[in-house]
Request: fold
Amino acid sequence: AQSMALTGDWVTLKVDGVRYLEKPPLPYWLAAADYHLFGFNVFATHLPLTLGVLGLATLAWVWGRRAYGERAAFYAALGILTSAGVFLFTRIFIPEVLLTLLLALALYTFLIGLEDGKPSRFYLTWAALALAMLAKGLVAPVFFFLAAVPYLLLTGEWRRWRQFRLPSGILLFLVIAAPWHMLEIGR
Reply:
């Protein structure tokens, strides 16, 4: 992130001037943007992860309230905010919090899309999946489909797969996730 902020190269990740190809760019983009806003400091580095945790707690609250009521929502959010994983994974700069937030958002919008049938919910699912891929890589869509497909099969909802907007959803996914990968491959 520091290299991005200093050089203006937002495509190629570098550590000490050496190309770093192991991680996708989203967490580093967020931190580099924070460096421009707040300077090079610990606050700017950890702000994306902190906001990710708050977003995850908010999503847990919204999801819990929708499914089980206010009390469940409170305990779901409290569980996120006080979990050992959140404490451990925000001490160092790793993208797991962002991945968790974006995967949870994709699953939530997928489920409420099945409930209310609104196409916009499924497009949010595809967008969240694309951002999750930019946060952690191919593991994001793999984990999503390893959860969504068995859910559809076990609940008998698999006949509704057309509602998921596959052609246009995949196109949206590619519009968001593919440009960085294509630029990186081209270098």
About this structure: The CA atoms of residues 24 and 136 lie 6 Å apart. The longest helix spans residues 42-68.
